[in-house]
Amino acid sequence: MTETKAADRAVRLPVPAWRIGLARGSLEIKQFFREKGQVIFTFALPVIMLVLLASIFRGRIGDTGVDAQQIYVTGMLGVGILSTSFQSMVLQVAGERANGTLKRLRGTPMPRSAYFVGKIAVVLVSSLGQAVVLLGVGTLFFGLHLPSDAAHWLTFLWVYVLGIVACTLLGLAYSSVVPAASAGAMVFLPVITLQFISGVFIPFNQLPDVLQKIAAVFPLKWLCQGMRSVFLPDAFQQYEPGMSWGHGRVALVLAGYGVLGLVLCLTTFRWKGRDDG
C-alpha cells in the first residue's frame, strides 16, 4: 500500500519546466528541418552571397596580408547571426501570432518560458550550422585561416553568444509591432540596409563617416567587427575605427542590446493578435 501511494504521488509530480522547454526545443528543431525551403534559404543564401562577393571583389588590403574575400567571410558570419535570430524570430513569431498558434499555446498547461526556450534552441542549432558552413567555405576556397589558439576561439564564443542573445530578444520584441502580412518587408528592408553600412559588402573604413555613425547604433556593425577580430590578423586593426578591435565596446554594445531586448520582450510581447479578443 505504501509503495502504491508513493508511486501515485510520483505520477502526480509536475514535470520540471526545463524538461518541457527541452521538449519544445526538440519539436521546434524538427519543424525547422521539415521545412525544406526554410532550411535551403537559411544555409544556402549566405553561402551564395559569399561566393558572389568573393568572386567579384578581390585584392589585398594594404600591407595587412588580408584579402577582401576574407573580409566578406567575416561579414557573412555576422549577417548569419542576424538572419537566424532577429530575422527568423520576427517572421516566425509574427506568423504564429497571426494564425492563432500563440493564443492556443497560452491556453495549454505548458509554461510560457518553454516556448522561448524552444525558439532559442532552434536559433542555436540553425546559426551554428550556418557558421560551420560559412567557415568551411571560407577556409577551403577563400584563404580564411582558422585560429589555432584558445583566446581567439573564446572571443568568437562571447561575440557569438552575445550576438545571438541580443538579436533573438530584439526579434521577439519586434515581432509584436509588425503585422504578419507585412512582416517580410518590415524585416528585409532594415536588414539589407544595415548590411550595406555595417562592413559586410563594403569595408567599413571606406564608408562615409555619417554612415559609420549610423551603423554604430545597431548590433550588426559590432558583430562584424567582433568576427573580424577573430579571423583576421592583428595587422588589420589599422582599418578599424580607433585602429583597434575594440573588444570592450563590442561586448558593451551587444550586452546592452541584450538587456534592451529583454526589457522590450517583458513589456511588449503579446500572445494574441491585435484583433483577437
From TrEMBL:
It is found in: Cell membrane; Membrane. Residues 37-272 form the ABC transmembrane type-2 domain. Keywords: Antibiotic resistance, Cell membrane, Membrane, Transmembrane, Transmembrane helix, Transport. The chain crosses the membrane at residues 39-59, 71-95, 116-144, 150-173, 185-204, 250-269. It comes from the Bacteria. GO terms for biological process: response to antibiotic. The keyword Protein transport does not apply. GO terms for molecular function: ABC-type transporter activity. It is a multi-pass membrane protein. GO terms for cellular component: ATP-binding cassette (ABC) transporter complex. InterPro entries: ABC2_TM, ABC2_TM_bact-type, ABC_2_transport, Nod_factor_ABC_transporter. Belongs to the ABC-2 integral membrane protein family. This is Transport permease protein.
